[in-house]
Specification:
Helix content is 70%, strand content 4%. It is mainly α and 274 residues long. A two-stranded antiparallel ribbon has the order 1-4. A two-stranded antiparallel sheet has the order 2-3. The longest helix is centred in the first third of the chain and has 34 residues, at 30-63.
């Protein structure tokens, strides 16, 4: 399924670069124009659903149906955060969704949005757990997982708000129209989601999820908005996103090395042992 998701992602980025950024290249026939209009409207929705299918297949194969409770909890928490955000401007700043992401819940939040939070929260938690495997590192794991999740928005917001109108900010901010408060809201929401996944990890059998697959999935989902901003020449967004990935990756590597050194420090040397 990752291969299918990768192919769809590549086709979406190429289609955006070739046609959305250069509409003069579109064939003038009504059928071609109609197909482009539908594709433009649905490609983000299709990407979320395809990513959900890929992740769902892995979860069912690896852990059965125990992941449905973490999904429900993360969905509920992220929906609450988004619903309050779109209504009161807390914790992200004032914004509203347009109709491009499909049907809404509560009249304001597209039903696919809380699902997309889960799609990236889970691999973020898996990558953070791999770096901080001991129970004593739970606080660090939650903080690191929230960072991985927030890094996604460094490309997502420029792509889906500045380049395409999937949501609109009430007050324009300095980062391609996004206010810095949004990143605070993302990190705080991420902390809540990571804490929930941490609490439900054993019950949902989340600890058996593979790191390599989770990291590849995270990068594939990130590739869509990152590819869009690169195609549009938003090089500051590309640099900031890659910098965020490097920061989260570097902190993960440092935490993993520290955890490994701590384990070895507690093991008596075999030299001279009887």
């Amino acid at each position: 399924m990752l291969v299918v998701l990768a192919g769809f992602t590549a086709a979406s980025v190429l289609g955006y670069w070739n046609f959305a950024l250069h509409p003069e290249r579109l064939p003038s026939s009504p059928a071609a124009l109609g197909l482009f209009a539908v594709s433009y409207r649905l490609f983000a929705q299709a990407h979320i659903l395809l990513a959900a299918l890929a992740l769902g297949v892995l979860l069912v194969r690896r852990i059965g149906w125990g992941w449905l409770l973490p999904l429900a909890v993360v969905y509920g928490l992220s929906f609450t955060s988004e619903h309050v955000g779109t209504g009161y401007g807390i914790p992200f700043g004032g914004y509203r969704y347009t109709g491009l992401l499909g049907p809404t819940l509560g009249g304001r939040v597209p039903a696919l949005i809380p699902l997309s939070w889960f799609l990236m929260a889970l691999p973020s938690w898996v990558m953070a757990r791999a770096a901080t495997a001991s129970r004593a590192s739970r606080t660090l794991r939650i903080a690191l997982g929230a960072l991985w999740l927030t890094v996604w928005d460094l490309a997502l917001d420029p792509a889906m708000s500045h380049l395409t109108p999937y949501w609109v900010w009430e007050d324009s901010g300095p980062y391609y129209g996004m206010p810095w408060l949004n990143l605070v809201g993302w990190y705080l929401t991420g902390l809540a989601l990571m804490a929930a996944l941490e609490a439900l990890a054993d019950r949902g059998r989340l600890t058996s999820l593979p790191l390599d697959w989770s990291a590849a999935f995270y990068l594939l989902v990130l590739t869509l908005p990152l590819g869009m901003v690169a195609a549009a020449g938003l090089w500051a967004a590309v640099a900031v996103t890659l910098g965020g990935v490097s920061l989260a990756g570097g902190l993960s590597l440092a935490a993993r090395r520290a955890a490994r050194a701590s384990r070895f420090a507690g093991v008596p040397s075999a030299v001279g042992a009887r």
